[in-house]
Write a structure and sequence with these properties.
alpha/beta; 17-stranded mixed beta sheet; 11 helices; 17 strands; 28% helix; 30% strand; DUF38 domain-containing protein
């Protein structure tokens, strides 16, 4: 840095020197210079937006024991830039790189890539973890004039839901994947605001136990592996319309859906199956298929309807009865039995 400390970069022409400087400088070096000079605006002018901008609020699967959050940027003319943020300082003894982004002084170090990554990875120590991480992403958005292309949020990573629901990238990113969530108010507001932008939202394991006012369209913009929704205060038309929209989606990751319904009679259950053109459950399905997931309350006697998907998997509909009527519904995916050894 000392070599560049006294250079007035703003005096250099952007179309020639600036473009050449961008092409021959590594991204981590480029950001180091840009954040430690009064001429940040010049670096911003010559920076080229990434083709992919991933924001991960948890470490990738192969490295989750290391407990870091990650930003990854891919460019046409550079190797991928990976920036990892840690909340513990142990890794940074003797670190000499200091990036200044807003009020954040980030002690950082460049380390060799892990596994098959042939490029180095920038690591930074950060306090005020969630707020700080959001501000870093916002700085990169402004600096590179781009928006995150995808955001992944792991289990228990969100510590302030009020802050997250106001964060523009969460509402605007084309691809949002959340590992699990049971915060009804957060989920419903997120779905409605993203649906207004014609964006879908994926939550692997979602639980909406106190369903508030939300449109059918907003709720139907949610994809999941396992879902649980309480429809007890909604009428049967709302439930039927939601399931109709649900069945119209191609969700390859879906395993099971469970719902609380407002004590349907047997006549209402039969009307539900008729409205959706469902077949009555065929006991012979046991010979060829098996459920991906199984729960204790899904007794054989509660299987009432089925619907074939893509000629291989079958959706099986369960209705569980109490003394007042049918108060629970479940949908599970049944897939063809795995071939037995020797057959």
């Amino acid at each position: 840095m000392s070599l560049f400390a006294h250079i007035n970069f703003s005096k250099f022409p952007v179309p020639t020197v600036g473009e050449a400087f961008w092409k021959c400088t590594k991204i981590e070096e480029f950001l180091n210079l840009a954040t430690n000079t009064p001429h940040t605006a010049w670096f911003q002018k010559i920076a080229v937006a990434p083709t992919k901008f991933s924001v991960n609020f948890e470490a990738p699967p192969e490295a989750r024991a290391q407990n870091f959050w990650e930003i990854r940027m891919e460019f046409k003319d550079h190797v991928p830039f990976v920036w990892r943020f840690h909340s513990h300082p142990e890794l940074f003894a003797g670190a000499k790189i200091k990036l200044k982004i807003g009020e954040h002084q980030l002690i950082s170090r460049l380390l060799p890539g892990d596994q098959e990554e042939y490029y180095p990875i920038l690591h930074s120590f950060m306090t005020n973890y969630q707020t700080g991480f959001l501000k870093i992403v916002n700085w990169l958005r402004k600096f590179f004039k781009c928006e995150p292309t995808d955001i992944t949020i792991g289990a228990r990573c969100i510590t302030n839901y009020d802050e997250m629901i106001q964060w523009e990238p969460l509402l605007n990113t084309p691809k949002l994947v959340i590992s699990e969530c049971d915060r009804t108010e957060f989920i419903t507001e997120l779905l409605e605001r993203r649906h207004e932008k014609q964006l879908r939202t994926h939550i692997d394991f979602v639980e909406i136990l106190h369903l508030q006012s939300i449109s059918i369209e907003g709720l139907s913009s949610l994809d999941y592996i396992s879902g649980r929704i309480n429809f007890y205060r909604h009428d049967s038309n709302f439930v039927t319309e939601y399931i109709r929209n649900f069945l119209g989606r191609e969700n390859s990751k879906f395993h099971v859906f469970r719902a609380t319904i407002p004590d349907w009679t047997r006549v209402q259950v039969q009307a539900f199956g008729t409205d959706l053109n469902l077949e009555h459950f065929d006991i012979n399905l046991n010979r060829t298929h098996e459920p991906r997931d199984w729960f204790n309350d899904l007794a054989n006697g509660s299987r009432m309807f089925q619907m074939r998907k893509k000629n291989t998997s079958v959706l099986v509909f369960y209705f569980i009865q109490n003394e007042k009527g049918f108060d629970k519904m479940a949908i599970t995916v049944w897939t063809p039995d795995a071939p037995r050894p020797g057959h």
